[in-house]
């Protein structure tokens, strides 16, 4: 190996960051010729089928497994009693208050079930089909108990979801700007507005229950035949899963290897540690054989965690010009039957976001989390922030209507001006960068805002049966979950750092290890681009490894739009360390001072000469280790762990035009423009995919999706016949653009984009629907805005009666709990009110 | 999900299929395109001991001209029916309904006879078949009989086909030169209609000379809107001409209430959609 002036074979690659590269992982993911967990076949593998409770709340009086055990090729049938303490327990990693009520969550229930779908027995058989057949033969007798189903009713403790806890109220968490010293007292602001002829808006909004509905159902394979117990699982969080398994089953962490192979989507739904995982581990240990469990779609819909499900009671005070003087938020959040991994914390993630992009002088947030006998809830794309964004963006439209100005005008009166960054908000967060004016100006221009407003006026004046509405959402969010210290202050059970390793191989190729665990995001491509640029090597020469605790031993996985802004920065730091080490070798080989070297395009050159050496040549030289500087360790490999000091704040302006057929209530999206500021972009194609998919998911909350339970606690929308997911046939082409103010919380200047579209789009759509019919006297339509709900709102408004549009309107009733919120769920279900 | 265990036969003639049906009685289920039966089996809502697959009986496939009717073999896939020029020319209402039936994959697997025999009142083919006065040819041990559409649909998922019989073909009386439209109301493209209206009209000199209107998902069976049909005769094919007749669309119906809408909403929808369907069929707008 000689250091010569010879040029390396390849030209220095052009800049990779910013290139619209197709994803390198897509071919195998799309064709399915890849390692989905359910594709794994191991010698002698056994299969599981779950026996689940059909009742929402019941005592288990007896379980007869005799017949099932005699079924062909059944190896074992076990109950919770049989597994006892060997099954471990499911943990809640985020107790939001010290006195939170947290029911014990066993993988297999022993004497009582708390939701329809809870597992009561498990069949182990030689094939999945035989396990399923035998599961039908398990005879379980139940004593049905009264079930706490309706969120508001449950909050009054009339029926207890867990009688032994004495209350359904799990935790009450408060942030008050007056107490925190970040702002004034909100009650003073409200009183002053009332006394001085200002505006006080009281509204109540419903965040319906949603189902993440990832594409790949959950699946787990456990192999107990090695020295380490190997767990494959379709999870977003292999590292957290390993920790939690070790913490609750008694298996030493060092004896556990967890692999998240290719994972087909999650949307937060696989940010979970599940009964099914614990059971598969327990049965593999019990039988000594590899065991697989793959859920059916029906099981996924009833038993994988759900999302959202809140009532939001809001009071906003403003002066007559619409300058907001205070915002008070009181939430009821439905936990479902158990406090799951981060379930109770989801509303807390929204606590800092109701003030959004605005300069509110006073703010108060309180959430009561409530246990019910329904499927447990947890993170779903956006987790806490979509709820907050919906509430405030709906309210700003209501304020605009009250003041009588354009919704964009009311926002501009209240938002943080671009020259005011960094800005510390009334919730105590420091927004590092942003430019709301620029994003809004661009969105208005693309949308043809004034023309559409003119068309809206024409349709109103002519009494057109098809009315047009324009919806606005100027969102921001906090993402890149990290920083560890802040998470600690919020009593979250883990930190938020991310880890990366960069290895230069002897042939000059590069292996990159990340602790972020992709499940469809395109990490392999985006991370390759970053490292290719940083090291000056070809994109194709970078291999990204992840999702296996043996390969990537340190990591905190993927959720909360954190992979790029935290994990990407760890990669940058590890790559820079490699370059630093290589520089020492280069100086030695080139017989120059390190201070005289330049590094560019993968090549170290001696300034002012044509002498140089490529980083690949250095990698080979270090492998040989024949000629290294004295005392140098023969390795370029480097690790880095990055823990940011702040969250990351993408923002954007979304404009939506909806047509409302007033004869039928049918809705048609006419136009959707979004201009997001997500800082610098690594791969525009991946960003487009995230934005488009995110938008559809948020629009789906506005228009289509809702998990509905009947009066006995059975999930009525338990299949895709009734749980309406949109397809490409139901959406239009979105017009997407970006403005850029680089983030200051990471050196790449990037901001998270995974959740942005979902967070922003829901209120834009509902605002557009309401705007289309506001002139008829309608101020709200509950989500999902079904044609029937829209039609009924129009009928009620037209009949001259008070428009009772379900969740809307100032109508707090002091006689009920939670300072009086009125339950309209029953009315909506029987169709009396939209 | 995995169905319960069942035996499977794939006969190559109708006679063999009938013999198998006679042998297994009510323990057998007929498999046509499988687009309704397989989900039912997989969700274990039904567990027949024997599944008799008609897929190999080639005589049950195809579309032919038989004088005053177009004859569609029971095992003809929707995609074939939808692109058939004879159907388009003489029974355009069926072509229009098939165009928006479920999704592309289902239209390639699902069969015309299978969907009609399943008799889901939310299915897209019942209302057009009823409106056009289709005749159902049913074969059994005693031979073949023909049942008119009015008698074919008996109740929810129940038809005039006996336990020992098989639907072999559907005769669609020619409505050559009639305008046709299927107005389907859905929240997402791939779902069953909340309400749909099948309308065929013969326009003569700007007025409606004859009309046939069928309603989807407005009762336990497809519903023929006789009152609308009668009221349309002689009316000009204009929004004002059609409005009053269409307002009678919900008369005598008994629609369901479910997550997509209550019965009263469906009754209202039926009137609006009928007006639109008739006007579009007549080549007018509104």
From TrEMBL, chain A:
Presence of the UniProt keyword Cytoplasm in the record: no
One Pfam family hit: MoCoBD_1
Keyword hit for Oxidoreductase: yes
Keywords: Molybdenum, Oxidoreductase
Source taxon at top rank: Bacteria
Domain Aldehyde oxidase/xanthine dehydrogenase a/b hammerhead positions: 31-146
Residue ranges, annotated region (Disordered): 1-28, 798-834
InterPro entries, sorted: Ald_Oxase/Xan_DH_a/b, Ald_Oxase/Xan_DH_a/b_sf, Ald_Oxase/xanthine_DH-like, AldOxase/xan_DH_MoCoBD1, AldOxase/xan_DH_MoCoBD2, AldOxase/xan_DH_Mopterin-bd_sf
UniProt-listed PANTHER family: ALDEHYDE OXIDASE 1-RELATED, XANTHINE DEHYDROGENASE
Protein name: Xanthine dehydrogenase family protein
From TrEMBL, chain B:
Natural source organism: Nocardioides deserti
Annotated region described as Disordered, given as residue ranges: 236-263
Protein name: Xanthine dehydrogenase family protein subunit M
Gene3D superfamilies membership: 3.30.465.10, CO dehydrogenase flavoprotein, C-terminal domain, Uridine Diphospho-n-acetylenolpyruvylglucosamine Reductase, domain 2
Stored InterPro entries: CO_DH_flav_C, CO_DH_flav_C_dom_sf, Diverse_Substr_Oxidored, FAD-bd_PCMH, FAD-bd_PCMH-like_sf, FAD-bd_PCMH_sub1, FAD-bd_PCMH_sub2, Mopterin_DH_FAD-bd
Keyword Oxidoreductase: yes
Sorted UniProt keywords: FAD, Flavoprotein, Oxidoreductase
Domain annotation FAD-binding PCMH-type: ranges: 1-177
UniProt entry tagged with the keyword DNA-binding: no
